[in-house]
Here is the input.
Amino acid sequence: MSHSKEIMVKMYTTMNRIRMFESMLQEYFAAGKIPGFVHLYLGEEAVAVGACSCLTDRDSITSTHRGHGHLIAKGGDLKLMMAEIFGKSTGYCKGKGGSMHIADFDLGILGANGIVGGGGPLATGAALAAKYKKTDDVTICFFGDGASNQGTTQESLNMASAWKLPVVFVNENNGYGISCPQCKSMAVTDIADRAAAYDMPGVVVDGNDVLAVHEAVGEAVKRARRGEGPTLVECKTYRWRGHFEGDACTYRCTEELNEWMAKDPIPRFEEKLVESGLATAEELEGVKAAVKKELDAALEFAQSSPLPELSALLDDVYA
Amino acid sequence: MAKKTYLQALNEALAQEMEKDQSVFILGEDVGQFGGCFGVTQGLFDRFGEGRVMDTPITESVIVGAAAGAAASGLRPVAELMFVDFIGVALDQLFNQAAKMRYMFGGKAKVPMVLRMPQGAGIGAAAQHSQSLEAWFMHIPGLKVAIPSTPYDAKGMLISAIRDDNPVVFLEHKLLYGVEGDVPEESYAIELGKADIKREGTDVTVVATSRMVHSALEAAEILAKDGISLEVVDPRCLLPLDTGTILDSVRKTHALVIAHEAVGFAGPGAEIAAQVAEKAFDYLDAPITRVAAPFCPVPFSPPLEQAFIPGAGDIVKAVRALR
Here is the structure.
């Protein structure tokens, strides 16, 4: 644990921001307050936080349909996110995008994405732009185990490696592509093995250990900044909820879920922080209380914000 | 003014914009030293270097998607697919990503990319290398669709497309690459979404696109001998579509023939016909007629391919049938 207290507590705070944000969405979705559908990130917080804590505001990410965690970890504004998910005009996208299409270009968030495997080529392009402009900016492409089987992902890995582009492919392997378990959809056990096909490093980490993710992605980011090309980091994790809220999850058993919930990344990190003396239990309680307040404010903002005017329907189709 | 081919005009547009703006670069299959499948990027690799004229792997999804990602990150990529038919493997990156970013992100994204794609039949390339797919792209809000017919338009429209802050699908007809016309040396921009009346006339409006503009002009010559005066309107851009110019022409001539090489059923002509039927029905003295390819894939064998491609004779026949 070589990091400063400030960085560690910030990571802990962000994990809690994601956890509480998603829990709040779970509650309000069940109550019928949120239109459309949502894919929650509960249980996977260590991946987004471990990875994004290696980046600066100048670096970029591409995200997925399960993107709230990535956006929060990259600095996304909770009020604007919450309002967007509630379909309000004050949201990040003025209510035009919703849960799967939130972006903040100023923070390098190039968008969540409704298409599985849609982000790979975009991340490759963002990394190409960084190289073209001769900056040392890095792009992280988050993608799931399902997306790892898409041609777009494999094509992106190939071109990024051939061109030594500054991109890090962070695979969130939560074991299921919707209902289909990994063993049915691919022959490999470790998605990171596929890196060898593109002559790039492939690393497997415990995706429920925020520090392990941070270390692995940190190395990959450094390598990318040095101009040595991409890395594939596979983070083994699990989603606590179904693919979407309302998914009955008949395809997996309670024992499996319980096993993973016992590996909850937040208490694990909490223990480390307290044991190492970087923070006291009271301090961490304080963090949670502050996050709770922040989320209450975000919810209040979202709920009290107006729905979009119908006159906005045709705005922003073109620049 | 110098005579140049359609291909030279495109090449000149690329060179001039690259000279002017460091953020413009080219990516695609064999666009580098090889000069592009049809030669459009010839000489640009030597002039601007591999840093700005990039040979990609055969990976259409990433060509289109990386262009979109780079455009969203502040550059102005010009991507080339060898044949429009290859868009099939890359369509998601165009219509779900590039075209929608601006709207779904609430107006914050800009995606200033151009996707150049040769299309059309006539070189014996058969079903997977000969289609005219403009109608697909016209159906997607967020895209612009340019389809120039002359060297002059090709240069000015490509310059506009590169400067445009939206994703522009730029459709070039393979058989037009060798067509010559007057093209000024200097840089100039032709507004996307502005039709051009290629020949004024009084009796029948022919709205024609791409190579069919030339067929329509040929038909106009033939019919002029019989005292029938065609007005040939080239929309130049199908999205946005300059319906105003088309409607004005129909209100003057009271008759409309639409000519394109795409398959007729649900082709671009269907939209043009609908626009005129909705907005100028009372001005029409005859049913709207479409001259287009038949409803089949493009065949290989030369006589079959020729039978597939609509031409001046079909336009002449269609016009005569109106009267």
About this structure: Chain A has a mean pLDDT of 97.
